[in-house]
Design a protein that fits this description.
Length: 457
């Protein structure tokens, strides 16, 4: 069995599973605390700084009700690599969205479950058609950033019409993940058709990086009132400008590069030739560090004119963390059909320093807010490529009805939900949304809930 102290169990022995879970967007609905925002398509999920300033005019704090954790912690044995129930597929799916309840969560395709289990236990069948029933994409990408920031603005100058200039001071966690994987077309062809391929070399590769850091933030906040004759003169109107400089202090860096190679013989079966060169193998290069330093810059501008809001922002400009004192360990399993699942482990050696840079997240947004309804949309480019979010909210007294849609990681998903004002200051929000964060990339329904504490000036 695999020893508990092997680092790769936590970060990469079956990095293949990370690749299977082809969408782990930490910045999207799966990790959001706010069921209200989720129900409206996740508009403002990453946010632009100026939009957050505007939101302060109708500010609230959302506290998630993490019903998904009952599923995540229902069976602790799946997290134990020495247990027969060890299930890295479910671990990664849970990591993609641990907070919210997912309908049919934990259900796996028979072919998938067998394939993953047999690779992990070095009991891979020579007949790969046995695993027909699930077909991962050939190219997979999962990446995201969770970086909530907590702080406040000190207004150093106040002008007419509610205008001000201020300094923002804050801090918060900075958690990022990036994973890119590939499955050779020959392998996905066998898994989809059940027809074995003779004399083939089929591969699965995966590279992942994860960071845990603290962001200490200093920034600028400014609001400029419109001139005479522009807008309706409401207290929310004006031009909002914001910028943050984030000093990043890294505490944990984990990275794995994995390669699985499968050789078939002239009959299309896994080759068990005594020649080691033809063995089907797993190799994992694991690197880690506990000392990182870096920075990132966020900036945004927004405008409110009468009932309209527009804005544009860029998060993560120039972002980087340089990790020093990197250590490297190589793990290998030289035969996937032998039944011997003990990985060979190299000595831990020093590795070159590593720099991690994340994509810049660009966002443009527009919203219209009437007396008892509002509509909003947001388009952007950053983690996972292009994205689009749109939503509506209609208020019926103490009840709010919401709906929307989102396009992220090349997938469209619907959203919807309700809000209930329990009192003037406390509301309950519930949302349902589609998610593809599972090995089959099929759409499942997730339920999010949160308590909203409304703030009034």
């Amino acid at each position: 069995m695999i020893r508990n102290d092997h680092v790769f169990v936590r970060a990469g022995v079956l990095s293949i599973i990370v690749a299977f879970s082809s969408a782990v967007p930490a910045v999207a609905q799966n990790w959001s605390f706010d069921a209200r925002a989720i129900a409206m398509g996740g508009v403002g999920g990453t946010g632009n700084l100026s939009t957050k300033m505007i939101d302060e005019q109708r500010s609230y704090t959302a506290i998630v009700l993490p019903f998904g954790l009952f599923q995540v912690f229902q069976d602790m044995s799946i997290y134990d690599p020495n247990s027969r129930n060890f299930d890295p597929v479910r671990i990664m799916e849970y990591a993609a969205g641990p907070l919210h309840y997912v309908v049919d969560r934990g259900q796996t395709n028979t072919g998938e479950a067998l394939f993953v289990s047999d690779i992990r236990n070095a009991t891979l069948s020579r007949d790969l058609s046995r695993y027909r029933g699930f077909v991962p994409a050939n190219d997979l990408l999962a990446e995201g950033l969770a970086a909530p920031n907590f702080g406040g603005t000190i207004k150093v100058h106040k002008g007419s019409g509610g205008g001000f200039q201020g300094v923002y001071i804050g801090a918060g966690p900075y958690l990022s993940v990036h994973d890119a994987g590939t499955f050779s077309p020959a392998l996905t062809g066998v898994l989809s058709t059940g027809v074995n391929v003779a004399n083939a070399v089929m591969s699965i590769s995966n590279a992942d990086e994860g960071q845990i850091a603290l962001a200490v933030t200093g920034g600028y906040r400014g609001r400029f009132a419109w001139g005479e004759g522009i807008g309706s003169g409401s207290a929310r109107e004006g031009l909002y400008v914001a910028a943050n400089y984030n000093y990043l202090h890294g505490f944990q860096y984990e990275a794995d590069v994995m390669a699985i190679t499968l050789h078939t013989n002239s009959a299309g079966l896994i080759d068990i030739s005594p020649l080691a060169v033809n063995n089907s193998t797993i190799g994992i290069n694991h690197r880690h560090s506990t000392d990182g330093r870096g920075f990132s810059i966020d900036a945004g501008v927004g405008a409110v004119i009468d009932r309209w809001e527009v804005g544009f922002g860029a998060n993560g400009i120039g972002n980087r963390i340089d990790w020093t004192g990197v250590q490297q360990t190589v793990y290998s399993l030289l035969n996937l059909t032998s039944g011997n699942s003990n990985f060979g482990t190299s000595a831990t050696t020093a590795a070159p320093d590593a720099r991690v840079e994340l994509p810049i997240d660009y966002r443009g947004n527009v919203a219209y807010r009437a007396d008892n309804w509002s509509a909003m949309a947001e388009a952007g480019h950053g983690f996972g490529g292009g994205s689009f979010h749109a939503g509506l909210e209609k208020r019926f007294g103490r009840i709010e009805l919401r709906g929307g849609a989102r396009y992220t990681f090349s997938k469209w998903n619907p959203t919807g939900g309700l809000g209930f004002d329990l009192s003037r200051r406390i509301s309950f929000d519930v949302a349902a949304y589609g998610t593809n964060a599972n090995i089959e990339r099929t759409r499942r329904t997730a339920i999010a809930a949160s308590i909203r504490f409304n703030h009034f000036k």
